[in-house]
Amino acid sequence: MPNISRRAAELGTENAFVVLAEVNERARRGKDIISFCIGQPDFATPANVQEAAIRAIREGKHGYTPSAGIDELREAAARYMGRMRGIKIRPDEVVVGTGAKPFIAYAILSVTDYGVGDEVIYPNPGFPIYESQIVACGAVPVALPLREAREFAFDPADLEARITPRTKLLILNSPHNPTGGILGRRDLEEIASILRRHPDIWIYADEIYSRLLYTGDFVSIASLPDMFERTIISDGASKTWAMTGWRIGFASNPLLAPQFVRWVTNTDSCAPHVCQWAALEAIQGPQDEAEAMRRSFLERRDLIVSLLNRVPGVTCRTPGGAFYAWPNVTEACRMVGAADSEEFRKRMLSEAGVAVLADIHFGARVAGEGQHIRFSYAASRVAIEVGIARMAEFVSGNAGRVKPDGNR
Hints:
By secondary structure, the protein is of the alpha/beta class. The chain folds into two domains: about 5-45 and about 290-400, Aspartate Aminotransferase, domain 1 (Alpha-Beta Complex); about 60-285, Type I PLP-dependent aspartate aminotransferase-like (Major domain) (Aspartate Aminotransferase, domain 2, 3-Layer(aba) Sandwich), CATH 3.40.640. It contains 14 helices and twelve strands. The strands form three sheets. It has a seven-stranded mixed beta sheet, with helices on both faces. A three-stranded antiparallel beta sheet has the order 9-12-11. It has a two-stranded parallel ribbon with strand order 1-10. Helix 8 (about 185-195) links the parallel strand 5 (about 165-175) and strand 6. The longest helix has 21 residues, at about 290-310. The N and C termini lie far apart (about 45 Å).
């Protein structure tokens, strides 16, 4: 049989979908599972957005569009992203994609060359597709550790230490998946100060959770002096308007937009026509439901953090944005005799019926930072209350059976 390429064999994945498949298989077998593993709003897409899509279908808007997206959506996205960040973005600087995720690859492909040692710095823990696409695109991944003591921001000194003459791109993600951490104005000003000394480095600002911020005002590094032209702003419809499956994202950069258009032409041709009209309505229509979702996520955040901090052996910092909690389970692992967070996760699924992700699903574990798991609190209050109660029972019920030497 012919062989597959090494690139395909080594391509990473997004483990949320892998674990979700395992959860669904258990559910099909009749297992009672409470899942916190997928980062997806549990709300319906707003009715006005659904109606806009139906109207587009009936009006025959279901053929190809320009690869950059329909003019109306590019104009609306330019106004929306610019207003959110306090900057001026032109419509021709915006490109519409099939979700925000493809722009990760488009950005890396546009600023690095394959196999020549070009480096991309990315946050660790982080969205796993960052590292996966860096490797697949033939660049060198350089992990930038996030620190729990810094509310899961990184130390600017750690960034400066990782910059070399081969560094081509820095990936920033705020609010952050998986920790819920944010980069505030002071953090971004320190980062910008470093990058001004390295004018050849591009910035990929993954800001898909920009509307799900619970502490202060959202700030983009693109709004800081000297940063706009070198920053690729990535945003989209998925999280703000519960449109994950509609697959509409948009990215902006005044210099790279034409390159992104060509990448879209070479891959997807264009984003789904009907969905583009739905996204236009999401941006321009009433924002009541988007704000209601945000308020609900904030209430759930406060609930899950409070409950997690009552679980024996668990500590959880309060995330500033997105809909993820990143509790430290180092002591809980010791209490139940789990070697690490991955064993803890697997046992909690099989023994307690609670599905989460482990820190190793988001990159190599950061030395000295302990063991963590991720909860997506895009789940009902009842699911949160019952799920954390099961977790507490799992830890308490197993703690007494661990011998002093750690054996069970």
